[in-house]
Write a structure and sequence with these properties.
With 288 residues, the protein is mainly α. It has 10 helices and 4 strands. The chain starts with 8 loop residues before the first strand and ends in a 19-residue tail after the last helix.
Length: 288
């Protein structure tokens, strides 16, 4: 290395509780170092490993090990953070409002992070970005998070979106991806249908959500290519006109309309099997 202040800048989030090996792996993957093994040896010889701190760091890919280690020891945990709950059934509009009100980032930076910034999750490649209004509608997983909120709004927005996408990638397991294939549905179709189930019956039990899913599948499978799901909440989605309105457009909407709960996603993958020939259901004002 030739010292800080030169080379390409790399922004990296080291999570609390990360081991030296995990930190070395992140540094290697980001391009901050070339050899994970040598960094581990260096850290062990210097006795630095137990001193490394979590936080958000700005490295140069031309910094030496000493400079990187010094930052990890002395500059960690300096970024402010805030706890944020993203409720189930939140739309992108809702999430933007929550994060802006919590001071995580500015609205324009968050919209840019959602629509334009590149992320390394494979499932993103299967989102039909030219058909949906918001690229990540439905994929910002509802949960309680701790987001960074320091003076770089663009980076805080990117980190927040990446964390929510990462949580989705973890929750939608390999087994669930195989279930989608068995139903002859893409992940995107499952997420779109799950969002409709969430909007129809968010307070219902998992078993009742499975029944709702079964009714929609019965319509899709038995009514032919012109089948209309006729879900009232889809008429309220403010974007895309008929593309999302299941009273106007046959089949599953072009994309999710909100971030569904894990139960709704699982219901879309595991519809009730005892409702053959049934095509209607009723929910009360509490969405049961």
């Amino acid at each position: 290395g030739i010292g800080p202040g030169r080379g390409n800048e790399i922004v990296l989030e080291i999570k609390q509780g990360s081991s030296t090996r995990q930190i070395a792996s992140q540094l290697k993957e980001s391009g901050a170092i070339k050899s994970e093994t040598l960094f581990l040896v260096f850290s062990k010889l210097k006795g630095y490993g137990s001193q490394y701190k979590y936080g958000v760091y700005n490295f140069s890919d031309e910094s030496g090990y000493s400079a990187i280690a010094n930052m990890l020891i002395n500059d960690g945990a300096t970024a402010d953070s805030v706890e944020v709950m993203i409720p189930e059934m939140s739309s992108i509009d809702d999430i933007i409002k929550i994060l802006v009100e919590k001071g995580v980032c500015q609205e324009a930076d968050l919209k840019n992070a959602i629509q334009n910034v590149e992320y390394s999750y494979e499932f993103i490649e299967n989102i039909p970005v030219n058909s949906v209004y918001w690229r990540f509608e439905g994929y910002l997983f509802p949960n309680t998070y701790r987001f960074y909120c320091y003076d770089d709004s663009k980076e805080c927005a990117r980190l927040a979106v990446s964390k929510m996408l990462g949580e989705f990638d973890k929750q939608f397991t390999a087994e669930m991806r195989e279930q989608a294939k068995a139903l002859n549905r893409s992940m995107h179709e499952i997420m779109s249908l799950a969002s409709v189930i969430e909007l129809e019956a968010s307070s219902a039990s998992f078993e009742d959500k499975q029944k709702v899913a079964a009714i929609f599948y019965n319509r899709l499978n038995d009514w032919g290519a012109s089948a209309l799901l006729q879900s009232n909440p889809t008429r309220d989605y403010p974007y895309g006109s008929g593309r999302y309105n299941t009273y106007e457009t046959p089949g599953i909407p072009v994309g999710p309309l909100c971030s569904p709960s894990l139960d709704s996603i699982k219901a879309a993958l595991e519809p009730a099997t005892s409702l053959s020939g049934h095509y209607y259901f009723i929910t009360d004002k509490f969405m049961n």
